[in-house]
Structure formats: structure tokens, C-alpha cells
Write a structure and sequence with these properties.
With about 325 residues, the protein is mostly beta strands. It contains 3 helices and 20 strands. Helices cover about 10% and strands about 40% of the residues. The chain is rod-shaped and about 80 Å long. Belongs to the immunoglobulin superfamily. BTN/MOG family.
């Protein structure tokens, strides 16, 4: 993992003990074709290991005590993406005329966790646009957009992903998904780190939304599904108006010429023949006529009717 320490193993298989004055130890990496750059080394008679590559200065270390026991492993600190390569361990014995007694090739794979994806949007123009970002991961990621309803992959042609190396040598990714104006759908952005067997997924809803911040209608063409805090109160208010208007008509039929008709006469009347689905009524009077029957006569009086402050479809 980037930023962590690692030990690259190079151990003599027979478990012999060694005299440090009889050893030459090299750790090196490929530089150019048929050439190598030395990461660190130990030469017979030295009390410490040396370095020739500045990139590994202060980060690569050999243990003198371990080498006496035949363990020539390299301890590498603060791993960076540039460390992902093949390391060669070579051990020679001076007493054997610099015969090579051990050679080990260790391949180091470097990884880093991506940040949890952040999905922004959607924008609501001619198409819906979602943007997914994740940073500081390694190696290069795979990016997928998923329909969370059935976990199917969305068409790659709908997305545009950009992966770039940042100043730390790690990858940042930005992926943009563009969808046509469709009914609401739950989509997820997935960042896959193959080396770590890791998938980070964040979901977001997108679709055709209408209404206010607190209330919207899904797929308004059929007018069958409503959501939001203001929808139910609006329906109740409309039903209350229907009952009130019906009561007013009953009053007028029973109280012909001498009944009160001030509020009804001064404002346009609304004829309601039936309500099969939620509707919005305009120009409704804030007052209705209620009929009160005493012992000998029937009279009508205006009464205020509370209405919802907002009505949404």
C-alpha cells in the first residue's frame, strides 16, 4: 500500500551462517535495457549498506544481523507508485572468487485505496448529467455506472471517464454520465480497484422531477404517482372543497330567494361533476354557505374554509 513499509524477501535456502567480511550483496532494479540501477548494496568489510539511487536513499535498508543468518531481505519504507517494479537480489561470496550463491527476483505491486466516490447532480436540461469523482487511488481504476434496479451495467457510450495522475503519482478519476429525460431511475457509480479486489459504489436518483423543492411528481404524463410533503394535504383540501360546494348547492336548493348568497354571488362559482384523479381548482371562494335549521326556518350563513397554502400536482 502507498505510504506503508514492505519487506522484499531474499533468504538463502539452506540456513547457513555467514561472515559479513565474505559477502557482497546487491539489490537493483532495471533501468534501461540490459542495465540496472542499484537500490542498495553491502560490500565486504563495510559496517553499513550504501545507496546509489537517490530515490531510495533513506528508504531502503539491509539488516546486518539478518544477513549473518542468511536473510538478505530488503526493508523498503514509505512505498510510492514508482516502486512498482521488479527488484533483483544478488549475493556473492568473496572466498569463492565472487561466485554468485543466491539470486532472487521480487516483483512489487503497489496499491492505494480510492476515496469514496462523490456523485453530484443531476442537472435538468435537455438531458440529465451526473458527475462521479474519486481520488488518490492506485493502480488505474475501472469505472462503471450501474442501474441499481436490476444491477445491470449502463451503456459505456453514455459515460465519459477521465483518469489522471496527480502530484503524488496516484490516480484521480472523473466520470460523467448523461441520460435522456427518462422516468426516475436509481443509478450507481462504481470505482473498482482490481489489485485490492475492492469496489466502491455510491447511488443517486435521477429522473423527470416537477413541482417544488418539497414536492415532485414522477412521470407526470400519467398523473398516477405523487411524492412529497405537500401532496396529501392538497388532496384533502380539494376533497374538503368538494364537500363544501356540494353543501352550498344543497343550501341553495332549500333556501331559494331569501337565503344568503353574498360570498357565492360575488365570486365565480365552480361546478364539480366528479373527481377521478387529483386536480387543482382555481378561483375558489375562501368562504362557503352553510345551512342551519332552527325550529321554523332554514337559513344560510357564510363560514370560512381553511385551504392549503400551496397545492402541487
Amino acid at each position: 500500500m502507498v505510504g506503508s513499509d514492505v519487506q522484499l524477501s531474499c533468504v538463502y535456502p539452506e540456513g547457513n551462517s555467514f561472515d559479513l567480511n565474505d559477502l557482497y550483496v546487491y539489490w537493483q532494479i532495471p533501468d534501461k535495457p540490459n542495465t540496472y540501477s542499484v537500490v542498495t548494496y553491502y560490500l565486504s568489510g563495510n559496517n553499513s549498506a550504501g545507496h546509489s539511487d537517490n530515490h531510495y536513499k533513506g528508504r531502503a535498508q539491509l539488516s546486518l544481523d539478518s544477513m549473518k543468518r542468511g536473510d538478505f531481505s530488503l526493508h523498503l519504507r514509505n512505498i510510492t507508485p514508482q516502486d512498482e517494479q521488479k527488484f533483483n537480489c544478488l549475493v556473492f561470496r568473496k572466498s569463492l572468487e565472487l561466485k554468485k550463491i543466491l539470486e532472487v527476483v521480487v516483483t512489487l505491486h503497489v496499491a492505494a485505496n480510492y476515496s469514496m466516490p462523490v456523485v453530484s447532480g443531476p442537472s435538468q436540461d435537455e438531458e440529465f448529467t451526473l458527475t462521479c469523482t474519486s481520488t488518490n487511488g492506485y493502480p488505474r481504476p475501472n469505472v462503471y455506472w450501474i442501474n441499481r434496479t436490476d444491477n445491470s451495467l449502463l451503456d459505456p457510450a453514455l459515460q465519459n471517464s477521465t483518469v489522471s495522475l496527480n502530484e503524488r503519482g496516484l490516480y484521480d478519476v472523473v466520470s460523467i454520465l448523461r441520460l435522456g429525460r427518462t422516468p426516475s431511475v436509481n443509478v450507481g457509480c462504481c470505482i473498482e480497484n482490481v489489485l485490492l479486489h475492492q469496489n466502491l459504489t455510491v447511488s443517486s436518483w435521477t429522473g423527470m422531477f416537477t413541482g417544488t423543492k418539497d414536492s415532485f411528481t414522477e412521470n407526470p404524463a400519467d398523473g398516477t404517482r405523487e411524492w412529497g410533503g405537500g401532496a396529501v394535504p392538497s388532496i384533502l383540501a380539494v376533497l374538503a372543497v368538494v364537500v363544501a360546494v356540494a353543501t352550498g348547492w344543497l343550501c341553495r336548493s332549500r333556501c331559494p330567494s331569501r337565503s344568503y348568497a353574498g360570498a357565492q354571488a360575488s365570486r365565480p362559482e365552480v361546478e364539480v361533476t366528479g373527481v377521478s384523479s387529483p386536480s387543482v381548482f382555481t378561483n375558489l371562494s375562501p368562504e362557503i354557505s352553510l345551512c342551519l335549521q332552527s325550529e321554523s326556518e332554514l337559513t344560510c350563513h357564510p363560514r370560512p374554509l381553511p385551504l392549503s397554502s400551496q397545492e402541487h400536482v
